[in-house]
Amino acid sequence: MVAPPDKVVVVAAPSTTDSHISFIIPVLNDLEALKRLLPAVQEYRNQGHELLIIDGGSTDGSVTFARSLADRILMTGTGRGRQMNLGAENASHNILFFLHADSQLPPDAGNLILNALSDPDKFWGRFDVCLDEPGVGYTLIAFMMNLRSRWSGVATGDQGIFVRKQYFQKAGRYADIPLMEDIALSKALRKIAWPVCLPEKIVTSARRWRNQGMLKTVLLMWWLRLAYVAGVKPAILAKWYYPEEKTNAGRRGLVLFARSPELGQVKTRLEPALGQELTLQLYQRLLQKQMRMVETFSDSEKEMWVDGDLRHADFRCFSGQVMAQQGKDIGERMNHAMQPLLEHSASVVLIGCDCPDLGAGHIESAFKYLEEGADVVLGPATDGGYVLIGLKQANAQIFQGIDWGTGQVLAQTRLQIQAQGLTWKELEPVQDIDEPEDLASLGEEFRALLPSQKL
Could you tell me how far CA 362 lies from the centroid of its own chain? Predict the structure, then answer.
């Protein structure tokens, strides 16, 4: 994936009342669709509603076209679910409206949504849908989609899902899966309340039915739904649904692990030598260096997983998605961060931000080893841990049974890799900065920050 040139990262504004709506539109090379949609929805901006474009890495000029026609543009990696989650995180209003780029709204859609949710017992809903192709067959397809949705309480993204933010969060947000993310969300919301099914129609594209054949497409969609209910992984379903697209071949994912730069919360073992203020400044410099280095990998999908405040000012320059670490120890947190990316990437490399000697060459070597056949790549640290790990497939057991924070981390990880029957490569060891004695290894760009007596 080649990242677009524009990188707009915005801190969320405080939520207001339910009197306005945040329109959230995920985009990936949708220029022609945006040329139809965006001029038509400017009236909603004039009414005080908010229009957010969430780009997944377009290269066709979508971002440039949308710049003057949206309130904000945010960028992340590919994946409609993660794009819409990023939009929800940054939405200014309590009512979220997830809209596909190839949609055409019914008249007065904003007030229709507000009226539908004016009842305090109504939390979410969707519109009916019709296809932009004339003919009895297309009309019947849309009729059956709407009827099935009313019967099942499950909405599709083509129907335009709207929901109050607190219930969207309560339902667990969109799943980061390559297909069926709207079905998964609907089922979670349905447990809270039945949807409001508005009869007014969103017009959506019939190109898939037209290009692949009406009956074939209908049967495929029913088969995919049945397979999903039966437990088939969404990554496999996506390959069936998008046979014309390349799968994960060549795709790279790059994860930066970090803490929110807060006084007294980072690199605390350095504080006896530096004090809290200098320790924080040093950590910020290390973090900034690694963020700049990660940005040079324009062909990789980039994510930062943070322990602490996701909206810290230091993260604003990061073009990828910023998400919260989850897990009871560092192993669970790393596994949780790498697993979603590995569902749609050929290889994923995760690095920390406390090793100034870890550079782009190390990351490129890790990707190369993985592409040449290694199952795992480790970047050892001189203290017995590691500062980089690369994987081709998710494997939670690699991160289990490790005495984190000790000098046994690297050795124990090797044993886990061997136990799984996996092959691995190791990079040259590098020095991370954890203890006061490590400060002597800092380069000139960091030495200038610290008093000479501390070195």
Answer: 24
